[in-house]
Amino acid sequence: MRGALIACLMFLAPAAAAAPRPPVVVELYTAQGCAPCNGAGGVMEDLAARKGVLPLTFSVDYWDYLGWTDTLARPEFVTRQKAYVSRFELEDPYTPQVVVGGRGQAGALEAGRLDALIARAAQAPAGPRVSLTATRASVAPGAAPKGGAEVWMIRYDPRPRSVQVRRGDNRGETVVAVNAVRELRRLGSWRGRGLTWTLPAATEPGLVTVVMVQSPRGGRILSVASRRPTG
Fold it and tell me: Does a structural domain hold residue 75?
């Protein structure tokens, strides 16, 4: 009986020690001057409350011509979205768009399709382990995809960002961004060897740091880890 109990505990031990699955990254591409985007903030708020999902809001600037300059937009966010345009063979970038785990895309207000994409991404095999400290990011050795992968650092504000739009199609509206991305930087390449990078200092206080391993040119997100600021 005792031997059977020990065998049972040995069988259960690896499962108990297994690392938790990384969250599914949901990227929203949106703009403060885009009228159809107003409902996307609520979608991201709901996702932020869902276990196992990491929503990130990327504001883009190509709607600025309507009269309002987006206060959160960065040119590099548009570059990232254009990689997905090529990856998913779309004609043009659009908003509000969500990209789920680098594996699929949909309109942000397509609730059923978004849920299906999240469920599918949650079942994907885990990639290399990513570890974070206040100043360093490490990717453990593992099986790299053909052609290797890219390692990205993202920093976002976990506090909702409210902006009152004064011109353009959303004049008079208050737009809220959930997990607004403030920094995006490519750290380097990963081809299967364990590597460590020194992280730059944050440009704003209170930002959460995310490091992800992703197949090149807008491919699948293989691994992700996040770290909240301390102090």
Answer: yes
Residue 19 near residue 87 (C-beta atoms within 8 A): no
Residue 15 lies in a domain: no
CB atoms within 10 A of CB 18: 9
Total number of domains constituting the chain: 1
Q: Are 144 and 199 in contact (CB under 8 A)?
A: no
> Per-residue pLDDT for the chain (231 aa), expressed as one digit of tens each?
444 444 444 444 444 344 567 899 999 999 999 999 999 999 999 999 999 999 999 999 999 999 999 999 999 999 999 999 999 999 999 999 999 999 999 999 999 999 999 999 999 998 999 999 999 999 999 999 988 999 999 999 999 999 999 999 999 999 999 999 999 999 999 999 999 999 999 999 999 999 999 999 999 999 999 999 986
- 13, 52, 212, 221: which is closest to 125 by C-alpha? 221
Asked whether residue 13 is assigned to any structural domain, the reply reads no
Considering the domain boundaries, does residue 6 fall inside one?
A: no
Query: Containing domain of residue 70, as a range?
Result: 23-227
Q: Counting every residue, how long is the chain?
A: 231
